[in-house]
Specification:
Blueprint lengths: L1 H44 L17 H10 L9 E10 L8 E10 L4 E11 L2 E10 L2 E8 L3 E6 L2 H14 L13 E7 L2 E8 L2 E9 L5 E6 L3 E4 L2 E4 L1 E12 L2 E13 L2 E16 L1
């Protein structure tokens, strides 16, 4: 009987060690994949000509956009090639679920449009999932792995491509020099506090509405070009983000807090709240 117990314990120990090694190997493989994608993103932005910000070219832009650019970008500011954001916050998988702790790191480029976002979400004290969203070379993708090992979501396709480009557009508030005239975004006038932004990449075009505050800051962004999956079905769904706590970082004014929500029948359903704790720019 004792020998049987010893054998069982040995087998359990070997299984535990194997699981630990699998988690370690899975995490390393995911980190290496993300690192390679980030390098591709940076390499693409290296081809963007260096420019210095010139206010004299603002005349063709809608008035609220001009107000925003005066607020966000000082005269003489060099164009930003890419941004790296460190984020902390919380997210929930459904409107009726609890909020879960989240930490993330994101790289964003405006020319060409792209991002790579990696996150860890704590499901339980002993369990988490690792996720990576990206829009790179015109293709969007989402990968989620339980404990960095077990694939839960691995999604590609037209809907991911479009949603990825939408995300780039709505997050260019953290890369404000990309919102200038002559950048990847075309602006259309609406009223004194609102403008429509359109971005095109590889023949794909998406749009979002930007709402500006009295100082010129972007307070809210909305779009109807985003796809949401629910119940195994994917459909275009209204999406909105609120932005707050602007601070100067390497010369430009950017928000430190954001909340994103899906909107159905006029009701907002927030699913992620983020604090941007660190920002680094490559000029």
């Amino acid at each position: 009987m004792l020998s049987l117990v010893v054998v069982v314990l040995l087998v359990a120990g070997i299984a535990l060690i194997g699981a630990i090694f699998a988690v370690g190997a899975g995490g390393r493989a995911l980190r290496e994949m993300v690192a390679e994608e980030v390098e591709q993103l940076k390499h693409g932005s290296a081809a963007v000509p260096s420019r210095t910000w010139d206010e004299s070219r603002w005349a063709a832009l809608p008035e609220p956009v001009r107000r925003y650019l005066r607020f966000a970008i000082p005269t003489g500011q060099p164009a930003i090639r890419w941004a790296r954001l460190t984020q902390h916050g919380e997210m929930r998988l459904r409107p009726d679920r609890e909020w879960l702790p989240l930490t993330a790191e994101e790289y964003i480029t405006g020319e060409p449009p792209g991002f790579v976002w990696q996150a860890l979400v704590q499901l339980k004290p002993w369990m988490w999932w690792a996720g990576r969203d990206k829009y790179l070379a015109g293709q969007g993708a989402r990968l989620i792995k339980l404990a960095t090992v077990v694939p839960v979501v691995d999604r590609l396709g037209r809907e991911m491509d479009q949603s990825g480009l939408v995300r780039v557009l709505t997050e260019l508030v953290w890369l404000p020099t990309a919102l200038r005239l002559g950048g990847p975004v075309r602006w259309e006038a609406e009223d004194e506090d609102t403008a429509r932004a359109v971005i095109t990449d590889r023949g794909r075009e998406v749009a979002a509405r930007f709402y500006f505050g009295p100082r010129g800051e972007v307070r809210r962004v909305t779009t109807r070009d985003n796809f949401r999956e629910e119940g195994g079905k994917v459909a275009l769904t209204e999406w909105t983000a609120t932005l707050d706590r602007y601070e100067a970082v390497q010369g430009v004014m950017v928000p430190r807090e954001a909340e994103a929500a899906w909107v159905q029948e006029g009701v907002e359903m927030p699913y992620v709240r983020l604090r941007v704790t660190e920002i680094h720019y490559s000029l």
